[in-house]
Design a protein that fits this description.
The chain is α+β, with helices and mostly antiparallel strands and 124 residues long. 19% of the residues lie in helices and 35% in strands. Strand 5 and strand 6 form a beta hairpin.
Length: 124
């Protein structure tokens, strides 16, 4: 699962938020944990949403939550907006961008793609 978080957050907060959201013990390169079953890769971006999160786990440990539910939980845990894309065959691009907010809202949004990052498109 891939997400973009609006502002960079400390690694400890990120791994805790992702672990809680997925219901799995996860680790980061900077926060290795015995017994973890998955990994969070953090990517910093200079434009748009500042932090990318890639959460992976082995196929033998399935997560039954949807990407939207995980995004909503991460947004609540980190108290900031989380952007992610989902497949949408009806969209011209084949994908639809969603924004999860800390208060639990889930919105369809337009994005601006940068050379190195992604952010919300500016209105009008």
């Amino acid at each position: 699962m891939n997400f973009f978080v609006e502002q960079a957050a400390p690694d400890a907060a990120v791994v805790l938020a992702c672990s809680r959201a997925c219901g799995l013990p996860l680790e980061l390169e900077t926060h290795l944990q015995e017994g973890s079953v998955g990994f969070v890769q953090v990517i910093r971006y200079p434009e748009g949403f500042e932090m990318g999160l890639c959460i992976i786990w082995p196929p033998s440990t399935p997560v039954s939550l949807s990407q939207a539910a995980v995004a909503q939980d991460i947004a609540r845990e980190l108290r900031q907006r989380v952007l992610f894309d989902v497949e949408d065959s009806a969209a011209a691009s084949g994908e639809r961008w969603m924004l999860a907010t800390p208060d639990g809202a889930l919105l369809t949004v337009d994005v601006r793609e940068y050379d190195d990052g992604v952010g919300l498109a500016q209105a009008g």
